[in-house]
């Protein structure tokens, strides 16, 4: 391994980060310290601190509030409004990342997530989901919902149970089994972070969260849980094939794993209903 | 309206991603944020499959009334309304 290189492994995917700026490398190392790896990388990001120029002859493909994705000078690129540019390799498995700001947080979130979700969805290996994951013995329960649906509340109520993540979960497909993996991109406070696990576990139940005045559970079948899962997925919008694969994976997950609507009041009594 | 529409050739926007899931088309516009997931009924799904950029609306209507055993008038009204709605959502162009 080169002295400037860091390797991290998230959801069994190794990402190489080559960072020639010492302070930046230290920040990245500190952020990903529980996820370091020496495996062969599937994704590679070369980070260059300094000025850059946006490619010419560009064609906008899609954008959101923090970045735009376009094609120009024969390659695809993300332009981040916070002062960074990522030029992507043709298979989206490598990138040159230029940043003017050595304290840029984009290499912590969201840029690696964007490459990872793209790779997993494109190869039909998995998806990333807005959800909270909790270990139940060897298996995992998944609590799915958008911001404000109660994921953090439930994570805070998790007690001695191991939390896989409180906000974002990576699901990977292994034949008929879907396994969840923790990651560094948590949302909650330090108390929650201490119990976050990077280990993987097979999903045994999926609960779609709904704040309620009483605890209840209703089984869900058919297309509805699949669509709810899609609504809470991270779509790689820049990659139509990967986006369409995300639909397919969501549908497969909800066919194989029992799904429920979970209404709950924010106290420990919710676990009696779940168990 | 029929005369204006029947010879038009609609085609799916390249800014969409779609899959048929459990017999229903699930379609998303890649440039619209937040994402709106569109799910079509059986007829809508068949129309979506027929939007190949080669068939005219008249030809799509013919396929629909033959497959679903409804009158041509009903099929045209339903297909035209559906296709115009897809156009409003930028999921197709003409």
Polypeptide structure, described:
The complex is a heterodimer of chains A (275) and B (94). In chain A, β5 (67-72) and β6 (75-80) form a beta hairpin. Chain A has helices at residues 22-31, 111-122, 151-156, 190-193, 223-231, 240-256, 269-274, and strands at residues 5-10, 13-19, 43-49, 59-63, 67-72, 75-80, 84-88, 94-99, 126-136, 139-144, 163-165, 168-174, 177-181, 200-211, 216-220, 259-264. With 275 residues, chain A is of the alpha+beta class. Chain B is built from four helices and five strands, in the order αββββαααβ. In chain B, β3 and β4 form a beta hairpin. Chain B is globular. Chain B starts with a helix and ends with a strand. The model of chain B has no long low-confidence stretch (mean pLDDT 92). The chains are: A alpha+beta (275), B alpha+beta (94). At the A-B interface, β4, α5 and α6 of A face β2 and β3 of B.
Describe how the helices and strands are arranged.
The complex is a heterodimer of chains A (275) and B (94).
Chain A: E1 5-10, E2 13-19, H1 22-31, E3 43-49, E4 59-63, E5 67-72, E6 75-80, E7 84-88, E8 94-99, H2 111-122, E9 126-136, E10 139-144, H3 151-156, E11 163-165, E12 168-174, E13 177-181, H4 190-193, E14 200-211, E15 216-220, H5 223-231, H6 240-256, E16 259-264, H7 269-274
Parallel strand pairs in A: 2-3, 3-8, 10-14, 14-16
Antiparallel strand pairs in A: 1-2, 4-5, 5-6, 6-7, 7-8, 9-10, 9-11, 9-12, 12-13, 13-14, 15-16
Chain B: H1 2-5, E1 11-12, E2 16-21, E3 24-29, E4 37-39, H2 42-50, H3 57-68, H4 72-88, E5 92-93
């Amino acid at each position: 391994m080169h002295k400037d290189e860091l390797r991290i492994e998230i959801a069994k995917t190794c990402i190489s980060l080559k960072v020639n700026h010492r302070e930046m490398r230290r920040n990245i190392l500190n952020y990903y310290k529980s996820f370091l790896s020496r495996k062969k990388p599937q994704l590679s990001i070369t980070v260059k601190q300094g000025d850059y120029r946006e490619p010419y002859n560009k064609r906008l493909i899609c954008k959101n509030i923090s970045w735009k994705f376009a094609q120009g000078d024969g390659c695809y690129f993300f332009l981040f409004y916070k002062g960074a540019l990522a030029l992507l390799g043709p298979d989206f498995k490598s990138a040159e990342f230029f940043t003017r700001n050595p304290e840029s947080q984009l290499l912590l979130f969201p840029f690696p997530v964007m490459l990872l979700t793209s790779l997993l969805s494109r190869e039909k290996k998995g998806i990333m989901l807005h959800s909270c994951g909790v270990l139940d013995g060897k298996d995992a329960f998944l609590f799915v919902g958008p911001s404000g649906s109660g994921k953090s509340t439930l994570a805070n109520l998790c007690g001695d149970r191991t939390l896989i993540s409180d906000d974002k979960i990576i699901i990977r497909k292994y034949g008929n089994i879907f396994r969840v993996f923790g990651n560094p991109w948590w949302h909650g406070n330090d108390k929650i972070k201490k119990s976050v696990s990077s280990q993987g576990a097979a999903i045994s139940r999926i609960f779609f969260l709904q704040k309620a005045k009483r605890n209840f559970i209703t089984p869900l079948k058919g297309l509805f849980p699949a669509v709810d899962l899609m609504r809470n997925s991270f779509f790689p919008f820049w990659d139509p094939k990967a986006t369409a694969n995300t639909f397919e994976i969501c549908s497969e997950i909800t066919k194989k794993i029992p799904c429920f609507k979970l209404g709950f009041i924010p106290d420990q009594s919710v676990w009696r209903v779940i168990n | 309206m029929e005369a204006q529409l029947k010879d038009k050739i609609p085609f799916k926007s390249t800014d969409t991603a779609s899959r048929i899931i459990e017999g229903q088309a699930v379609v998303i516009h890649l440039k619209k944020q937040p994402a709106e997931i569109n799910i079509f009924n059986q007829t809508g799904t068949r129309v979506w499959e027929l939007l190949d950029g080669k068939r005219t609306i008249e030809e799509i209507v013919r396929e629909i009334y033959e497959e679903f055993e409804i009158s041509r008038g009903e099929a045209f009204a339903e297909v035209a309304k559906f296709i115009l709605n897809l156009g409003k959502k930028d999921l197709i162009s003409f």
